[in-house]
Amino acid sequence: MTFKLPDLPYEEDALEPHVSARTLHYHHGKHHKAYVDKLNKAVEGTAYAGLKLEDVIARSHGTTHTNVYNNAAQAWNHAFLWQSMSPEGGGSPKGPLKEALDRQFGDLERFANDFKLAATGQFGSGWAWLVLDKGELKVVSTANADCPIANNQKPLLTLDVWEHAYYLDFQNDRGAYVDGFLQHLINWEFASANYDAKRMAA
After folding, report:
1. In terms of CATH architecture, what is 21-84?
2. Sheet with 154-160, side-by-side order of all strands
3. pLDDT tens digits, 43-52
4. In 3-state terms, what secondary structure has residue 68?
5. Is the pLDDT of residue 202 over 60?
6. Is the confidence at residue 67, as pLDDT, over 60?
7. Contact status, residue 144 vs residue 126, Cβ threshold 8 Å
8. At the top level of CATH, which class does the domain 95-201 belong to?
9. Is residue 169 a contact partner of residue 177, using CB atoms and an 8 Å limit?
10. Which element (helix H / strand E) includes 159?
11. Confidence class for position 200, pLDDT limits 50, 70, 90
12. pLDDT at position 39, please?
């Protein structure tokens, strides 16, 4: 199985002004593509060849095959990121996810605050996530390429806080980038669909 770079689910300029077309061009077309290309090269002729991406992540996690894990996790994380953002994003979740967020965090404002703290508080490169962990919603951050699915958590949405995700638009102001995501881009429909599917499968 050869891993392929997935298409963006929207045009490169669809997330402006919160994420510029220039940023998406480099982030998707250069960074994400590089992870996919490096992963294909790393698994060629190994026991990982022919596996699904999630299985590569699971089997390489915690091994000496860090190059395989890092590129596999970054390929997966970025594909998940594009779905976590939407030109029609922002607003509030509905249905069971909203009820669960209210139970866990008290209200959407407290969730947003916790998510922003996780995103801005991540030292160096990494990710902020909303995950389902043993039936409970949690906001977590991961460093570098780490991926919640390697830790038996079920991601619902994510935001990339590597500098390449925002530096062309916001320079060192990561907080403004996170605010734009939470207020205008966060894809609650995607998160809700993930929550419903993972809750039913539990």
Report:
1. Orthogonal Bundle (1.10)
2. 136-143, 126-133, 154-160
3. 999 999 999 9
4. helix
5. no
6. yes
7. yes
8. alpha beta
9. yes
10. strand 154-160
11. low
12. 98
